[in-house]
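User: Predict the full complex structure for these chains.
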Amino acid sequence: MDTIIAEATRGDRVESRHAGSAVVVDAAGRVVFALGDAERPTYPRSAVKSFLALPLVESGAAARLGLGDEELALACASHTGEPAHVAAASRMLARAGRDAACLECGVHWPVDDGAARALAGTGRGPSALHNNCSGKHAGFICLACDQGQDSTGYIHPEHPIMREVTAALADVTGAPHGPDNRGIDGCSIPTYAIPLRALAHGFARFGSGVGLGAERARAAARLRAAVAAAPFMVGGTNRFDTVLMQALGPAVFSKMGAEGIMAAALPEQGLGIAVKCHDGAPRAAEVAMAALLIRFLGPENRDNMVLAGLTRHSMRNWNGMIVGEVRAAFA
Amino acid sequence: MDTIIAEATRGDRVESRHAGSAVVVDAAGRVVFALGDAERPTYPRSAVKSFLALPLVESGAAARLGLGDEELALACASHTGEPAHVAAASRMLARAGRDAACLECGVHWPVDDGAARALAGTGRGPSALHNNCSGKHAGFICLACDQGQDSTGYIHPEHPIMREVTAALADVTGAPHGPDNRGIDGCSIPTYAIPLRALAHGFARFGSGVGLGAERARAAARLRAAVAAAPFMVGGTNRFDTVLMQALGPAVFSKMGAEGIMAAALPEQGLGIAVKCHDGAPRAAEVAMAALLIRFLGPENRDNMVLAGLTRHSMRNWNGMIVGEVRAAFA
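Assistant: Here is the predicted structure of the two-chain assembly.
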């Protein structure tokens, strides 16, 4: 519970520190490394978007609708609402013969400040396409339309589409998903509290295909390839997942979730990693994930990560002076 | 070190939790209440801006330059860069015969998203006047000009202005301020790590005048009155300090600092309160401060705080549904 995973310094002192849990699991479910409590149920939030996208691919809907790398990466994304993201979400809906009016995720300004200000500069406001989850929601709508179903109300647990994607979550993670462990996510779909270990195990399976069945394993490989080919679509400017996968390509598949969740698959090593910063801070989960990737990836990828600046965040003040850093706090 | 001061829920579960320290001290320095480690040196960051503004008032500079409630409140502020803040910072500099070119705080977009987007909509970018610390810096420049000093380099520890305001910090808090406990703040001036207890003691003195000497006590009362009269200037739209002082008036003087610091003076009770969320999260420091204010203020003020919605933050998703809350975690 109280393991410190990251700290923020200022001058020669630690100014703030972050408790958390982390676990590394292989595809057979064996725990390879653990820090803190890996069994405590935790909402994975957006970290499992790629699992939710599996039915879209394995059903053949993605292929029938002609969704490419960018659209599939966006289906797995928490994007920053930059123009390329908005355009791809719009394309997905158009392929299904639908538009932004079908999205039930709600509206918010782009996460990327520059994109928000640029949009404001046009005198227009945001639409549901700018919501960081619009690609995931567009994927649900594509799946519904391909099946000839009415997508209305797809965000509710009992809608056939939500039942189908929730079954995929339960299958990949091996954890029960039901009313007892259900909360509501920021975009209004359910999120289910599962052990961090189960989340890591899901990523080990998603990265290796082991234990998924042939069709689901192929769909997982397709989604990983899409994100590796279009890493900007899964996040955006300066986002950890985007910067990491731009640097490392298919050697890692990572995805953040709100409230300090990070999860990653290491296909070559057959491992899955999950991190929860207990206080919900992304900065801590990111440097802790980077430290674990450094430990479990090969030396070439380690160098690329250091080059990409992911292992430590320097903190600069408004005059550009370095005043401290955020760094992992375990060896 | 590991006391949980606040938690964020989702559904019927705690999703994230925040460790921290809190202490309540009277003007004589007696600890009335403590949670966690009150002796650990902590950077107070912007929480001590009102102490830094004391020389501006007690020297007579503020009166000679004709600074009113709004300008004095802005000298104590971490403001959101809304038009009223920018105008007041500009007025302060004009009173000293200076302009924004003298500010050494650096430039950032307004903290308030609406203000940032409105500024972007005009096609212009931010200036140093939009920096959340511009009022504090304008106060330093006013003090320098009133004394006939060159303000250039006022952000450096050895500049006469910085020495003068740092001496006020040391006097009010009773803690040493020197190279050994110095870091650099976001706006480039020094920040000194002091025990949380000393920060609370400083607020007890600032609120009561006890132990400050007659002139400094009068200056503290003037600054408190200015902020009570113009609480929007010390923060901005939806900021904790502004909402609290709009609801309670002079019954409390509160000020946030970066990385999860909150401090408050309760003049009628002669108490000072300081809170540090160890992970740096403002949401936790705010609800913890609200819980302590509820405990130590009279019943009428308690009702006003609850009405102002400060004791619990409901968390809504992008469709407006309440999905959880942030609340203090101690009784």
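Chain B touches chain A through 53 residues (CB under 8 Å).
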